[in-house]
Amino acid sequence: MARKALINKAKATQKFSVREYNRCPLCGRIRGFMGKFGMCRICFRNLASKGEIPGVIKSSWWLFFVDKLFLLLYNAKPYL
Fold it and tell me: What is the pTM assigned to this prediction?
């Protein structure tokens, strides 16, 4: 966890916009911030594995193989 003083410092408006930086709202981490999801990579991974982020699924080579096998056997159109 980040120190509360540093979290409050990041929330304040800076004199120059270049000095502003992103922090994870859950843990306060500055490195590994994913702007698309608004959190760090560690919190993203934890929430995604629990299924709490809608639209995000864990990729798996096994599922990729099964999909390709299904397409070959049944001549179906891919849904991607």
Answer: 0.63
